[in-house]
Design brief:
The chain is of the alpha/beta class and 503 residues long. It is 31% helix and 24% strand. It has an eleven-stranded mixed β-sheet with strand order 9-8-7-10-6-11-12-13-14-15-16, with helices on both faces.
């Protein structure tokens, strides 16, 4: 496709070269991933690119360069290279990338989920519901990577939860070509703020909740909220919003004729009542349009019921039969790293969960308090180079709801792990709950398992199914569940089955 066709109707200025240059090698922000015939978009501040990397992109065969603002024609862009300026490269990128891949979002039902907590769980549930109810081929893009029909689509490790626009449109194109009828996408606040979700043609936008997180990116809760609200300001046709969260009312005001609600504590279009929560799952009655539907999910907790309501409502708004959707809920498979349970031989229950914000940690611990047979031992930490204000808050929550806290590292990145632990300890100490601290996460898990008695529950929180630890500039292989299995059953007899399971 010609560069001029990719930008047709979008404000741009040709600074040099021929705009009819054919773009045949893809579109990228990463200079080192440029290929012969590609379009290199020089996004200012991008870690793997920007105007200063134009020479690298051209050396790898890029056929054209897109720059923005007042950036001059980069050095090294010879007269034969087409250079085009746009007001904002991030706004232009999804336009060009979507057209390059044939606007793949138009050919599939697309659900985009945003909110602080629950995005991954809702995406897994929606995927499974559609597969179980209708045998649908579903694509998923999110924290756990990208897959279609359950088969992973390999991408570089650096690709984000919601990929940059060129990679996102590429993935949508692959999913369309592999026969996906629906795609479920996790839409992060930064993805919405930086226009990555533009031109994906979202059919249903889902809002789960808004609690403290990502203040290192947005600065204030209001800015964080405004980033989330972008999904409901022209990026989706219909909205499914959590009536139990006050932001839900703001979204309804933005889309008064195209939104429905779900909830437990308030009146909502999709409402759950008669909740019964236990260690093996939750039962409830789903109310919609005057009808009652008995439902059960193999996950404990009110927040799990809320996530199930969101997934069912989103799929129903796509036009699928409600009764068939609800009928699949008791067969949902475990969600990796989300309340994933492992029972040790000596009677200790271990829960591995992604809870890494004050709200999510409190919800998981409150759920455990509802049915834990004995003590709760919580292993957790806070990420480095991220919002420092939530560290003491998470320490206070863990101290209040646990019987023993084990403070440890959770992706310290380039920050001193001991400094992070000091911040968390400041929140735990006033609660009076005993605690230990180990910067080494493996040692922390070993200590917690050694301290646990039959009937105790050990919660390992913060990383969920992440397969690595980010320490310094390296990604070190590390899986919480794999370490739990290894340390809990060091002398397991050959042939003994794996007893890790979702609840």
């Amino acid at each position: 496709m010609k560069l001029s066709e990719l930008l047709d109707g979008h404000e741009h200025q040709v600074l040099q070269g021929d705009p009819s240059t054919a773009i045949t090698g893809g579109i990228t922000f990463d200079a080192d991933r440029s290929a012969p015939g590609s379009l290199y978009i020089a996004v200012r501040g991008h870690a793997e690119g920007g105007p200063g990397a134009v020479g690298r992109a051209l050396a790898r065969g890029a056929a054209a360069v897109l720059i923005d603002g007042e950036v001059p024609v980069p050095e090294g862009a010879g007269d034969g290279v087409c250079v085009v300026r746009v007001p904002d490269a991030r706004v232009a990128a999804p336009v060009a990338a979507s057209r390059y891949h044939g606007e793949p979002g138009r050919g599939m039902d697309l659900v985009a989920i945003t909110g602080t907590n629950g995005k991954t769980s809702v995406s897994y549930m929606a995927e499974s519901i559609l597969q179980l109810a209708e045998g649908a081929r579903v694509g998923v893009i999110g924290t756990s990577g990208s897959r279609v029909g359950g088969e992973p689509i390999p991408m570089p490790r650096s690709v984000l939860t919601t990929p940059e626009a060129p990679e996102l449109q590429y993935l949508l194109g692959r999913m369309r070509d592999r026969g996906a009828s629906s795609v479920v996408l996790e839409a992060t606040s930064m993805a919405l703020f930086t226009h990555r979700v533009d031109r994906t043609f979202v059919d249903v936008g889902v809002f789960t909740n808004l609690t403290q997180d990502h203040l290192d990116d947005h600065g204030t809760m209001d800015r964080y909220k405004q980033a989330k609200l972008r999904l409901f300001q022209g990026l989706c046709r219909r909205a499914v919003v959590n009536a139990d969260d006050p932001v839900g009312a703001e979204i309804r005001a933005l889309m008064p004729d195209a939104s429905v609600t779900y909830g437990i504590d308030t009146e909502a279009d999709y409402r759950a009542s008669d909740l019964s929560v236990g260690a093996s799952g939750s039962r409830f009655t789903l109310h919609y349009d005057g009808q009652k539907h008995p439902a059960a999910i193999p996950f404990p907790g009110r927040y799990s019921v809320s996530n199930a309501l969101a997934a069912v409502a989103a799929c129903h708004q796509l036009g699928h039969n409600l009764e068939a959707l609800v009928g699949t809920l008791d067969r949902l498979p475990p969600i990796p790293g989300r309340f994933e349970r492992y029972d040790t031989r000596d009677g200790t229950s271990v829960i591995v969960d992604y809870a890494h914000s004050p709200d999510s940690l409190e919800k998981v611990l409150t759920t455990l308090r509802g049915f834990a047979a004995a003590r709760i031992i919580t292993v957790f930490g806070c990420g480095g180079d991220r919002d420092t204000t939530k560290r003491a808050a998470m320490g206070a929550i863990a101290g209040r709801l646990s019987d023993l806290c084990v403070l440890t590292s959770d992706n310290p990145r380039t920050e001193n792990p001991e400094t992070i632990l000091d911040h968390v300890e400041a929140g735990v100490t006033p609660t009076g709950t005993p605690f230990e601290r180990f910067a080494d996460r493996r040692r922390a898990i070993r200590f917690a398992l050694a301290m646990a008695q039959p009937g105790d529950t050990v919660l390992v929180a913060g990383k969920g199914s992440e397969p690595y630890q980010s320490i310094g500039d390296e990604l070190i292989p590390f899986s919480d569940m794999a370490v739990v299995r290894e340390l809990a059953e060091p002398r397991r007899p050959p042939g003994t089955g794996d007893r890790s399971h979702g609840v």
